[in-house]
Write a structure and sequence with these properties.
By secondary structure, the protein is of the alpha/beta class. Helix content is 40%, strand content 17%. The protein has one domain: Rossmann fold, CATH 3.40.50.970. The chain has a five-stranded parallel β-sheet, sandwiched between helices. It has a two-stranded antiparallel ribbon with strand order 4-5.
């Protein structure tokens, strides 16, 4: 049985400390509820941009962990970001890939290749320091502390089901430009 995305996000919220999080697409509604007003910046509206946004944040804040909550459909839109991230080699980047085999936000159409796409092999081939898959929540919880401290870039392919909500069914949230301003202000104050 695939992990429930909301259960994975709850575990992250409890363990992440002061990490900056970049939720995208179907992780965004649940994350807004779990971690309101925190060091997060949602990547909704520019599908495939979460990994690149996370890379920029990781390079700009090298002493702080950055966690990207990517979707398999989203990453397929910008697959070249794997090589870009590997080339930049940010030691503080954890790239969590929520793999459900569909474009859930737009109606659950199957992604090219469906569940057979192997993002672990792609990340390793691109040059990520470490990449592996997790299929069970207990295993995820056991490995989570090292996901937050291992030298990156690290990709973890999480085999999940569909989220309860998507940005199309829950349109709440703060506009992206305001999220950028809020994050910038908080990071400046944290110094």
């Amino acid at each position: 049985m695939a992990m429930k995305p909301e259960d994975v996000l709850r575990a992250i919220a409890a363990a992440r400390g002061d990490a900056i999080c970049v939720p995208t697409m179907t992780t965004s509604p649940a994350w807004r509820t779990l971690a309101p007003d925190d060091l997060s910046i949602g990547c909704v509206g520019f599908m495939g941009g979460a990994s690149s946004l996370g890379l920029g944040l990781a390079l700009a804040t090298p002493t702080r962990r950055v966690i990207v909550f990517d979707g398999d459909g989203s990453l397929l839109m910008q697959l070249g970001s794997l090589a870009t991230i590997a080339g930049a080699a940010p030691r503080n980047l954890t790239h969590l890939l929520f793999k459900n085999g569909v474009y859930h936000t737009s109606g659950a159409q199957e992604i090219p290749g469906g569940l057979t796409v192997d993002f672990v092999t792609m990340a390793k081939g691109a040059g990520y320091r470490k990449a592996y898959a997790v299929t069970e929540l207990d295993d995820f919880k056991r490995r989570l502390p090292s996901m937050l401290t291992d030298e990156g870039p690290l990709l973890v392919e999480l085999h999940t089901g569909l989220a309860d909500k998507t940005p199309m069914t829950d349109r709440s949230g703060v506009p992206f430009n305001q999220q950028v301003d809020n994050l910038r202000t908080r990071l400046t104050k944290a110094g």
